[in-house]
């Protein structure tokens, strides 16, 4: 928490930013991202560490949810559908990792899947009476079907079996939009309690770390990295696009989260959606 003077100065800055045109806001956001990426590129030599950090932060975020469910005995504000999508893409990714790599990512995915399965169990059975099902109404078919169809047509060119490559693409696409039901639910609630917001912010940080790997790799190779798995093939450009999409999906929430934490507020308030 900052001092009163720091909070006042930050509020002035945020107020000024809110009054700026959309183009200025986008330019400022892009500038901040570039500075962060440049810093990571300068201090982290092995870019694969970004993936490990992303998966570890995601698992830590779910541990925050487990703490909430254990102590508060309440799952209000939490999207069961996002948890189910998370379990789905993590299970698929774990299968791909087990047969294709079998490394630290396999360990982290196993932990994440176990944690997520426990959260789903608590929400479906132990704490079912506190689950806001009427606000968690996003149809899962709107996410699963497009991801499945796209993965059939756009997947990596590797020496693995075709089915494994399709599954690989499926979890990448599904992960990029799995948080959507949670964000839509939070827009309906608007005033959010701390544990859920900590979890979603952890997802935002994890996503940024994952995106950093792709963006820095593309920069370091002057764009050649995009075509490593087949000359002119669109798989890696599509992966980069999904990473950017998920980052921007979470960016708006992360802005309001940081603003609330800086001002010393436990609850995060989101603006009303425009009609």
Automatic annotation (TrEMBL):
This is ER lumen protein retaining receptor. One of its GO terms (biological process) is protein retention in ER lumen. GO terms for cellular component: endoplasmic reticulum membrane. Keywords: Endoplasmic reticulum, ER-Golgi transport, Membrane, Protein transport, Receptor, Transmembrane, Transmembrane helix, Transport. The keyword Amino-acid biosynthesis does not apply. It is found in: Endoplasmic reticulum membrane. The chain crosses the membrane at residues 26-44, 106-123, 135-154, 166-184, 196-214, 234-258. It comes from Heracleum sosnowskyi. Belongs to the ERD2 family. It is a multi-pass membrane protein. One of its GO terms (molecular function) is ER retention sequence binding.
């Amino acid at each position: 928490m900052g001092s009163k003077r720091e909070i006042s100065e930050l509020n002035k800055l945020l107020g000024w930013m809110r009054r700026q045109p959309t183009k200025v806001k986008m330019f400022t956001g892009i500038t901040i991202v570039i500075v962060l990426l440049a810093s990571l590129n300068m201090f982290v030599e092995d870019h694969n560490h970004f993936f490990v950090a992303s998966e570890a932060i995601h698992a830590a975020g779910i541990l925050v949810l487990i703490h909430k469910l254990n102590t508060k005995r309440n799952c209000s504000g939490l999207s069961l559908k996002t948890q189910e999508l998370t379990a789905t893409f993590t299970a698929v990714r774990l299968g791909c990792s087990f047969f294709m790599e079998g490394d630290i990512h396999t360990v982290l995915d196993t932990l994440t899947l176990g944690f997520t399965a426990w959260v789903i169990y608590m929400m479906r059975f132990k704490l079912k009476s506190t689950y806001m099902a009427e606000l968690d109404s996003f149809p899962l078919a709107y996410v699963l079907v497009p991801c499945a169809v796209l993965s059939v047509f756009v997947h990596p060119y590797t020496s693995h079996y075709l089915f494994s490559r399709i599954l690989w693409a499926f979890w990448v696409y599904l992960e990029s939009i799995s948080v959507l039901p949670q964000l839509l639910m939070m827009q309906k609630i608007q005033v959010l309690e701390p544990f859920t917001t900590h979890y979603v912010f952890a997802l935002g940080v994890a996503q940024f770390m994952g995106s950093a790997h792709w963006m820095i790799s593309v920069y370091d190779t002057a764009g050649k990295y995009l075509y490593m798995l087949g000359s002119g093939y669109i798989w890696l450009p599509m992966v980069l696009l999904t990473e950017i999409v998920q980052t921007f999906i979470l960016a708006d929430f992360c802005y309001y989260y940081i603003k609330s934490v800086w001002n010393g507020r436990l609850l995060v308030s989101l603006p009303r959606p425009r009609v």
